[in-house]
Amino acid sequence: MLTRAAAAAAALALALPTLLPPAPPARADQVRDAVTPVLDSLNVPRAWSLSRGRGVTVAVLDSGVDDTQADLAGSVTVGPDYTAGANPPGTEPKRLHGTNMASIIAGHGHGPGAADGMIGVAPEARLLSLRVILERDEPGFAAFGGDRRYEGTIAQGIRYAVDHGADVINLSLGRSYPTRDERQAVAYAIGRGVVVVAAAGNGGAERSARRGGHAEFTYPASFPGVISVAAVDAAGRHAGFSNRNSAVVVSAPGVQIIGAGPGSRYWIGDGTSPATAFVSGVAALIRSRHPKMAPALVAQALVAGPQQRPARGYDLGVGFGRVDALSALTESDRIAGFRADGMGLAGDRRFGADDEGPIRVVHHPSGPILAYVVTGALALVGLVGSLMYAARNRD
């Protein structure tokens, strides 16, 4: 049996998609042709009349981003590599997964009129790349998972992102158990007005998930205040691999999604990772239009008008439905003036002080009622500190 530390690398792979190179290799104009219908399905082009992400920074905590990739050049700031030393000396980071996610969030295309290549949801947003994980085929992957020095990389990355101006944090990754450091880092982010978006995980097709009707909760996605994202196919149906649990808030496309890779190559993959990137892009559009909007209100905007809302309003597999960028922006305009003077507790009190006892996470049996209580409560996550942020910073 793997120890907790030795299992870390495998656990972190929960949200990572399988990325396969197109055959034959895609040309830039083919890429634009492929990504446009996906953006159309989320009403992104119509939302661009209201916001394109200008002035917003999205932190991509991942395997690293290639800042020379033509569709990202000029938009990426490269921050610390928290995995340094895990790979053998002289090994170049692969940066495939992180580059792929970054291009979905904020790719700006290239060529005449930027008409070729990858266009993301928020093409005018800036990106902060923080390398917090290794990819499975990097030579140091096993060492990374077995070395306690690297257990806190995600928490370190979250705190760095907050302290260096991130408005949105994208976490297309996850593990099957919570850690104190990550929980407190999430509280730190939300309490300071940063929107945290994370992948629900890709364990939905496992035997235990099929037998129990839901997958294990994945972290950081299942921490209070985090926007947990599931994956759907092109028709808006729940993707079989996507986790089903009451932490899921919204869903986005995650099947056969194209994105940029290092250099000039483009890759196609499945997973809750790209779905998360799409939602982070929509969150960036909202924060560009309403820079001081509290994370809880961004979540409220996202759940207010999704496409194909489930028959009962909420479903463990797709949350409140597939996100709609235009509806989210419209709702953000409606609630932008919300104030919450005197409501809620500070984030450190809600999540617990640093000197409290061992972390305890209790999950009750899943069901529609609990789903509404847990996920719908994101509209009032001011109890986690973010509505206090809104009270201090009226847009």
TrEMBL record:
Q: Which residues form the Peptidase S8/S53 domain?
A: 53-320
Keyword terms of this UniProt record: Hydrolase, Membrane, Protease, Serine protease, Signal, Transmembrane, Transmembrane helix
Instruction: Give the stretches traversing the membrane.
Output: 369-391
- Give the active-site positions: D62, H97, S273
Q: SUPFAM superfamilies, per this entry?
A: Subtilisin-like
Name the domain of life: Bacteria
Biological-process GO terms, alphabetical: proteolysis
Q: Name one GO molecular function term.
A: serine-type endopeptidase activity
* Signal sequence bounds: 1-28
The text of the family note is:
Belongs to the peptidase S8 family.
> What PANTHER family does the entry give?
CEREVISIN-RELATED (PTHR43806:SF11), PEPTIDASE S8 (PTHR43806)
Record's protein name: Peptidase S8/S53 domain-containing protein
Give the taxonomic lineage as stored in the record. Answer: Bacteria, Bacillati, Actinomycetota, Actinomycetes, Streptosporangiales
